[in-house]
Structure formats: C-alpha cells, structure tokens
C-alpha cells in the first residue's frame, strides 16, 4: 500500500481487504469506507459498487475510485482515470465480476478518521417486528449524515429466540457530537425492548470483529438481496423474511439507504439503488441440509422480488438468480464495453450457470436458475 498524503490518495492491490487497508490508514489518521466484513477483498467489493461503512450518507465506495491500473485482454497495461481510458474506469465502478480487464491497482480517495465512534442497539422480541421496523423507517431519513442505520433479524448471543435489533453507528469528531447524534434514537425507540446498549464506544477494529462473528467460518451460506421499491409497504414486504424461523446462525438485514439513494449518482456502471436495501443470509453447518436451507432462502426471496426494483451485485449468486443489477441504459453500455475490450472472452466473465453469458454478458432481467435447487 502506498499513500500520497498530499492528495489523500492510497494505492492498493485488489487482494487487500478493507480491514487491512483501514489498519494501514488508521495509523496515519485516515480511513476508507470499505466493506463491513473484515475478510472481503477490495477488488470484488469495489467492482461490485461497494456498500461500505455509512453508505447511506457517504455514498458508494466505488465513487472514491480515482483511478485504476489494469491488464487488458490483449496484455496491455493501462492507467485509467477520468481523462485516460475513462470507459474502463466507468465500468470498474459497478461492473462486478464481468469487468473486461484485470485490475492491478486501485487508487482510492480516503477521508480523515473519526476520533469518536459510538453505537446504540436495541433488542426486541420478534413479535414486535412491525412496530420496530415502522420506527426504523420513520427515523432513518431524518438522521444526520454520519450515522449508519440497520435493522437485523438475528438470534443474539446468549438468547435462544430470534429478535429484531435496530443498530445505530455514528462517526464523529468528539464525544459530545457522537452522543448528540444518537440522542434521537435513544429517546424515541419503542418500548418493550428486552435489553438496550446505548452510546457504546466502538472502533472500526471492534466493528470488524463483530462482523466476523456474525459470519462464522466453516459454515455453508446462501445469500440473496433486493432493493425494495420506494413506494412499497416495506414493513409488510419484509415481514416473512424477518419473522420466519431460520437456523440460529442465519440473519436478515435491512440497510437504510436514504439520503444517498435520493442523490443523482455519478456517471458510472453502478446505477441501481433505492431507499431500502434488504439482504438474507441463510447459514447452516451440514451438507445434508443444503437443499432445505437453499429452498427456504429462495422461497422468502420469491415473495419479496415482486416488490423489488433490482439487486446489488455484492450479495448475489449468478448461478442461482439473475435480476436487474443496473438501469437498462447502463447495462447496455456495460455489455458493449465488455465486447469492445474483450472480444474473445479471455477475461473471466459473470460465471453464471455454464458461463452461458460469455462475452455477451448478463441480461438485465429477473430469472431463477431452478436446476441449482
């Protein structure tokens, strides 16, 4: 990793993780809004768009890609920025695994680290799902620009029943501002919680540890996601996903995306977003349970899909489900660029079933691959 402190640009390999990058940057008073899970590599994370720390306010991580260095299908090494090979930079911000070159280096804009991070969490019985989710939806759009808001359906440590847990994480310069940022949530949260932890001091390192615990090694996963339409009855649409019995390790996640979702996106491949992001992670231990757990995840998503605008590349499996990952205009432009830069299909594509999409790339349509189930 190389840091140009004057320009606030860090140059990093795609193989580095967000946790590794922030460990490097934190020693220099800086940070990057990388992925929440500590072992996620920057290459895939950024090519998919990058739903990183406080994405609802700071925007997509790929927006901070100032330039890339790539190897093309013909073996040429190119530097790509806004004035040189700009179409490849456009594609690198949201193309996903079908990016038609191999990235050697990302050049990323970084921000100053925040001296005070506090979190508040409220654990409710799942029977209070509707009241709690309604509150989250009401308070999220009104919140300050440095606070991340999620709601999780999970079985908390030390408990034996599924709960709904709203989480508020704020990034501030001092303790007073951090406490003020969480005050509305701490004051207005619904009654009936099992327990609450308010104004808890935390750090990126601590948050990475929590994320690692939520995604245990040695387990089997089926993940899917959707951008719920802005005019949908979100509470009702997600009710089954949040309340249906799943394995202890499984969880469902709602991520508030407004106000970022209401701002015009820069000109880049990433072009799909709404105010409401949902992801489902079915997690289990034994191979014998594969079919049951995968079908459960599919059945839940089938009920949600009719209310979805599209999906995020980062929590998608193209061998199981395809959907709208881009606006139609950006999808057409992206697949044209794939054919321009890799006419023979030298670079790895989207790896759908049988790699059928090939050089043509993914069709921007909803389709379940039933043979995988």
UniProtKB/TrEMBL annotation:
Key word Oxidoreductase present: yes
Cofactor(s) listed: FAD
UniProt keywords, alphabetically: FAD, Flavoprotein, Oxidoreductase
Family, as annotated: Belongs to the oxygen-dependent FAD-linked oxidoreductase family.
Domain FAD-binding PCMH-type: 1-113
Gene Ontology molecular function, alphabetical: FAD binding; oxidoreductase activity
Phylogenetic classification of the source organism: Eukaryota, Fungi, Dikarya, Ascomycota, Pezizomycotina
Pfam families: FAD_binding_4
Protein name: Glucooligosaccharide oxidase
PROSITE patterns xref list: FAD_PCMH (PS51387)
């Amino acid at each position: 990793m190389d840091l140009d402190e004057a320009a606030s640009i860090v140059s990093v390999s795609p193989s580095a993780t967000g946790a590794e990058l922030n460990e490097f940057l934190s020693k220099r008073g800086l940070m990057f809004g990388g992925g929440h899970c500590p072992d996620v590599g920057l290459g895939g994370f950024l090519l998919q768009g990058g739903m990183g720390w406080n994405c609802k306010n700071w925007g997509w991580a790929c927006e901070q890609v100032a330039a890339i260095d790539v190897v093309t299908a013909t073996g040429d090494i190119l530097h790509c920025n806004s004035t040189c090979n700009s179409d490849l930079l456009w594609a690198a911000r949201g193309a996903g695994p079908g990016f038609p070159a191999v990235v050697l280096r990302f050049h990323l804009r970084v921000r100053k680290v925040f001296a005070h991070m506090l979190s508040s969490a409220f654990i409710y019985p799942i029977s209070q799902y509707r009241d709690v989710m309604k509150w989250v939806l009401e308070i999220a759009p009104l919140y300050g620009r440095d606070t991340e808001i999620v709601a999780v359906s999970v079985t908390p440590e030390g408990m034996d029943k599924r709960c709904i847990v709203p989480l508020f994480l704020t990034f501030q310069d001092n303790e007073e501002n951090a406490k003020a940022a969480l005050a509305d949530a701490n004051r207005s949260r619904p009654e009936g919680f099992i327990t609450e932890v308010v104004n808890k001091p935390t750090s990126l390192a601590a948050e990475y540890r929590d994320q690692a615990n939520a995604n245990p090694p040695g387990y089997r996963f089926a993940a899917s996601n959707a951008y719920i339409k802005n005019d949908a009855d979100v509470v009702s649409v997600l009710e089954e996903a949040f309340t249906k019995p799943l394995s202890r390790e499984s969880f469902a996640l709602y991520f508030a995306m407004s106000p970022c979702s209401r701002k015009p996106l820069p000109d880049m491949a990433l072009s799909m977003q709404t105010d409401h992001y949902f992801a489902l992670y079915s997690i289990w231990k034994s191979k014998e349970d594969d079919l049951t757990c995968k079908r459960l995840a599919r059945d839940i998503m089938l009920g949600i899909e009719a209310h979805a605008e599209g999906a995020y590349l980062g929590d998608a499996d193209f061998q199981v489900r395809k959907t709208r990952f881009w606006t139609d205009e950006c999808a057409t432009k992206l697949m044209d660029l794939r054919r321009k830069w890799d006419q023979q299909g030298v670079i790895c594509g989207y790896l759908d079933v049988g790699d059928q999409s090939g050089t043509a790339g993914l069709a921007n349509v909803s389709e379940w691959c039933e043979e995988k189930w």
